[in-house]
Amino acid sequence: QVQLVESGGGLVQAGGSLRLSCAASGRTFSSYAMGWFRQAPGQEREFVAAVSRNGGNTRYADSVKGRFTIFRENAKNTMYLQMNSLKPEDTAVYYCAADRTTLVITIPEKYDYWGQGTQVTVSS
Questions:
Q1: How many angstroms separate the CA atoms of 98 and 86, rounded?
Q2: What average pLDDT score do residues 14-41 get?
Q3: How far apart are CA 86 and CA 77, in angstroms?
Q4: Helical (H) or strand (E) element with 70
């Protein structure tokens, strides 16, 4: 089992940057594929980015491709989401998720563990 805690959210102007972190408990972080999802008010949770166990494979939603970068440091039990060129439509609660799989997963229902979320607000 793994517990996840997100941090790094906040208020930023359009065009700005933020780096989200997802800290995981336990000694088996490298056994989990990880992902970032977001949910805006009144909308369903949507995929943002995902990374494989060793960080070698990544996938991105088309809406963030070229602006966001997902990466992980297994020695620190931490995953990150570097968000650049932020837009007002990126405003949402961002969640990290984990699953014991060798795959890179984009479907939220496939993830077993979730953090509590961190708010990102981008002003125009």
A1: 25
A2: 95
A3: 26
A4: strand 68-73
Q: How far is 32 from 12, CA to CA, in rounded Å?
A: 31
In DSSP terms, 60 is beta-bridged to 49
Dihedral sign from CA coordinates of 55, 56, 62, 67: positive
Statement: residue 27 has pLDDT above 80: no
Rounded to whole angstroms, the Cα distance separating 84 from 12 reads 11
Decide if 107 contacts 5 (C-beta within 8 A): no
- Mind listing the pLDDT tens digit for each residue in 58-99? 999 999 999 999 999 999 999 999 999 999 999 999 999 999
Total length of the chain: 124
Torsion of CA 77, 23, 86, 121, to 10 degrees: 180
Q: How many CB atoms lie within 10 A of CB 68?
A: 21
Cα-based distances in Å from 38 to 30, 31, 113 = 23, 23, 15
